[in-house]
Amino acid sequence: MGKISQKERMKNYYRIFEQIYGDPVMSLYDIAVNTELSRNTVSKYVREMYANSIIRGPSLRMKPTQNYKEYMYLLDFSDPWKAFRGLKGFPHVVYHGLTFGDWNIMVITDRLLDLSKLVGFEAVVHQGVRYCSYTPKVGYTSWDESFAEVYGQLDRFTPVETEYKDRRFTTLDWSQDEWKLFYAFNFMRKKVTPVLQKIKVRYEAYIKWMETLEDHCTIHTGFYPQGYKTYLSYCFLLFTDYEKSVRSLFSFFPTTPFIMEVDSQLLVFVNVSSSDVKRKLFCLIYDMKRKQMIRRFRQAAAIFHFYGRR
Asked: Which of 5, 2, 33, 6 is nearest to 225 (CA)?
């Protein structure tokens, strides 16, 4: 057989992504059966996809509970690079990012902290509880096709009734072993037995923990056809009463968005491939405001991210 074209290879990458998106721990054998590709081909493609950052995840993020919450801070510092470096390893910091725009530092913590005490702090642009996060399943499409779909949905949007925002809390009752499992399997596609031996947790506890994930965690798998590192990530804080409609709109893009509920707002990360796409994206944001899907917004370009836990 002749060499497969890059277009056909990318289609197969997407088919594999679909399987992992639907079942994060699906075996290579089952992916091969479902995609009708050979197991060796699936194994090769999965390695390529991770090596080139075409797929990211599946990874875990905590849902807020009555006894566990995370807090998002959008901040301004006089020397953001110094602040970004200083936050690495800072107690209770789950994530921090360096940005350029309406804020220059983003921080997520698992405790409510007074970050105004840090050297160089200037202002809090926005602060609030981080509720659920979402990575909608994107389609295999082009930017032009996706914008056509987006504007078709936006044109049909009517700001009539405020959409219900579900902010209910469950109770988190994880033991020490279950927290060990969360940190060890934050990236979920790992060989289970060696990890369990390393962290000294029994297989039965792992199975029981897996059954609790839907209650306490969201699972995130992203698809980036050109490789995640080649895109520029733009972040929008959107003030809206129509969260469901906004999330749906961003799901049409060919790159996976990352969407967080921050109090009653949405923080949306969109990965774009060119200045032309960037221009269309900003026009879309203004058109969403014109259609009253959002009331207002703030924005920044994400330069560096660091996700790490204690």
From this structure: 6
